[in-house]
Amino acid sequence: MIEQQDLIRAIEQLGLKGAEVCIHASLRSFGEPVNGGAKTITDAFLSCGCTILAPAFTYHYQVKPIPPYMPERNGAGDYTYFLNGSYDDTGQIFSITGKDISTQEMGLLPEYILSQQESHRGNHPLNSFTAIGPKAKKLTENQNPTDLYASFRTLTDDNGFVLLMGVGLDKATIIHYAEQLAGRTPFMRWALDKAYNVIPVFTGGCSDGFENFEGILKNTASEIEVGKSLWRCYKAKDITRLCANEIIRNPHITHCANSQCDRCNDALLGGPVLNN
Ligand SMILES: [Zn+2]
Question: Which sequence ranges form a coiled-coil region, renumbered to this chain (predicted)?
Answer without folding.
Answer: none
